[in-house]
Amino acid sequence: MTIVHLGMDDIDSPSGGCTTHFASTLVERLDGWHVKWLDYPNLVRLNPNIPYRTRGNGAVALRFCIEAKRMSELFSEARRMVEGYTERGYPNTNPGFVMVINDIPEQVTELAKLALWRALPIAAAQRIVDRLLLKHFIMGNGRGLIGALSAIGNRLANDHTYEYLAYRPISTRSRTRGVDHDSVIEMDRIMGDRVFSNMDPSSGEILIGPRGPDPVIYGIRGEKPEYVIEAASYVRSSEARERWTVFRTNQGTGEHLTHIVRVCDLRPYMAALVQGEVASTPTMIEGGHVMFSISDGSGRIDCAVYEPTRDLREKALLLTVGDEVCLHSGVRPSSSSHGLTLNVEGVEVITLSEQVAVMNPICPQCGKRMKSAGSGKGFKCDACGFRTRDAGKNEISIDRTLERGLYLPPLGAQRHLTRPIARINKTNSGMPTSLVERWHFP
Ligand code: ATP
What we know:
The chain is an alpha+beta fold. The chain folds into 4 domains: about 1-155, Alpha-Beta Plaits (2-Layer Sandwich), CATH 3.30.70.2200; about 160-255, Glycinamide Ribonucleotide Synthetase, Chain A, domain 4, CATH 3.90.600; about 265-350 and about 400-415, CATH 2.40.50.1010; about 355-400. The chain has 8 helices and 24 strands. It has helices at about 20-30, 70-85, 105-115, 120-130, 145-155, 180-190, 225-235, 310-315, and strands spanning about 1-10, 35, 40-45, 60-65, 95-100, 135-140, 160-165, 200, 205, 215-220, 245-250, 270-280, 285, 290-295, 300-305, 325-330, 340-350, 355-360, 370, 380, 385-390, 395-400, 405, 440. Strands 1, 2, 3, 4, 5, 6, 7, 10, 11 and 24 form a 10-stranded mixed sheet that branches. The radius of gyration is 27 Å and the shape is elongated. Bound molecules: adenosine-5'-triphosphate. Adenosine-5'-triphosphate binds near residues 47, 57 and 96.
């Protein structure tokens, strides 16, 4: 038996589809070949700031053992299936497909780490497949190779979660799915903290259904495969499930935000933690976005907290000059209208600066606050008539309404990779040693 890792990305077409849906059809085919699955399909989310992404920048890796004699047949069958799934000539579809046998080379692991937070050139991925003689194929400009290799290189060993993805036929393209709102609320109530980010408790908004023309009916996120499978049994939708698959993922792990980057080292599209002092008072601009700047000794940069981040924006407005913060950010490239800017997707308040108000002194005779008696004439008390030239103004510390800690946008405005507050102290480490009996259909 040979151990195979198949990585794939950017497999969609103008008539719909997505990489996870394609992977689900490939799982069905390989199951018919009686491969021995080593893992659930891995859905690896990559740098969410990449401009070429269609949706959530997800790539997929399948890991299994197969009889050595079927190896050549495997690759040609996968290729045939990708070609059948996509339509050539569509400018935004640049599929990449790679096969790694047995051990995963160091270079592939390193690329996978970078792809979580940097913007990589296609040539970086092409060099790796060329040097290591990895069997692969690309279409279009081959950008999918970056995600395909990165999915293989990320073993999801530190922390991971699961997602149950239910699909409708690829020909169905409506933007609504008919997911029953009440059934999702009920599912969330029954499942409790075994699942996460499936609805926003503050607004009652349902977050499991996408709104595009893709074949996903809904995706349920949770801590274990058994949990997401049980959760799906409670959800009703008017569109019938044609197929479903459980993926192991890095969603909800915050894996893209692990690098603290100095302002002078920031580059376009990076996902970075940027630590510094608030350097200008936050203000709300047209469109409801909040703007301020921070500096860290190496430079100063504008920061934008956009309108859809709602509560996060309200918290940002409470920051004052001198507060020390760590901003969870995506770097927006400069343009003719603005410089390099941090798109803020989380604010960690580390220290709050002291805010003082300068006040007139208290009257020593009656305890009321005195008034100025005129320039150079000291203070007078209107209540009891006391006058003095000896007293000076007092500095009084003002209570801050903001507290130290991490602030995130509402769940509906978070990235797939964002570690939600509900998962702050949770980690699922290690890789599965066995799979549940039924993790996909058909
Ligand atoms: P789908 O769900 O259909 O796969 P998506 O949102 O995942 O949609 P893709 O259509 O796959 O987006 O496009 C993302 C493209 O960006 C892929 O070609 C992928 O290889 C590439 N990519 C991913 N991460 C990086 C990165 N860090 N640097 C440069 N390119 C990247």
